[in-house]
Amino acid sequence: MGELEVRGSCVTDKCGAVCCKFRVYDDVDKTKFTLRWCEHFNQETIRCNIYETRPEGCRRYPDVMSLVSFPKYEGCNYYLADVSDPILP
To answer: What is the pTM of this model?
Structure first.
């Protein structure tokens, strides 16, 4: 595989905005965690309440490393493309 690039767009109404959830680890068993919504995520509108001023980590997502390292959620419209492949659009 050659040079990778993130393609696609955010479609929060299709994926459930799971990238707006974060892991909260158990105090005793650090291998267990629950997923919680970001405090700025509006579950009714399925949108970020502070989108224009969101933190840097949210602005960078998705990047190649996050899509390689973490499982892609069902309905997520982002994908990795090998830009060194001349037959890709």
So the answer is: 0.62
